[in-house]
Amino acid sequence: xxxxxxxxxxxxxxxxxxxxxxxxxxxxxxxxxxxxxxxxxxxxxxxxxxxxxxxxxxxxxxxxxxxxxxxxxxxxxxxxxxxxxxxxxxxxxxxxxxxxxxxxxxxxxxxxxxxxxxxxxxxxxxxxxxxxxxxxxxxxxxxxxxxxxxxxxxxxxxxxxxxxxxxxxxxxxxxxxxxxxxxxxxxxxxxxxxxxxxxxxxxxxxxxxxxxxxxxxxxxxxxxxxxxxxxxxxxxxxxxxxxxxxxxxxxxxxxxxxxxxxxxxxxxxxxxxxxxxxxxxxxxxxxxxxxxxxxx
Length: 296
Fold this sequence. Notes:
By secondary structure, the chain is an alpha/beta fold. The chain contains 11 helices and 11 strands.
């Protein structure tokens, strides 16, 4: 599967084209011999690579969703974590079925089923997609390495901490998730698939181990302060996060503390032909985030 045989001039739509994975996927697909459509709520406000067509989607007008997907062969679906995620993704799934889309690649999450948002939301969306008469692939990555971006300022100020305890999590680079999505979207046989893939980085880390890795890269001691879930929620709220965002972050810490996302897989290598990027490389590439107290 690591050698991709592309179907000429596929019409591929990316819903969530400005998100972390979506943007990386659009950049990767822009160089391929496909007709690429970026679906976004504000197409006039976004800049995409040359050759990419931007088309607006309006979730307040459900009938417009099917029109936005007419002529599309394959759809990448990722709407981001929000209270409307389940409603919006189900609406796009139904619109894709009605429009005759052949295959949906849904960005999900592994660790299912868990009762924390967004894991429970992905469970509901996956169940709906599996009930429809359409080819599909569920991509279930572990937590993105980008989750450490919010640790940048606390690390710089010496106040980093959380409720992850000594549990471990196998973080993944969003570019590896995008590469996996690209491979599935371009595979000539994927329209007949109804599959799920778990995607991880090369190894699991605890937050104290990440602190030690940062210490070596920065040349100074970085520590991770252990807090209770309630203490961490209070810290996050005091930092300016709203209740919803703080709840998602605390839920992740609880999952980390239980090592619920520690799984190691070779799926990135299987789908893309290359090994997943390491956390050390991601930290090195983003080291400036941890040197300055200026918010990212």
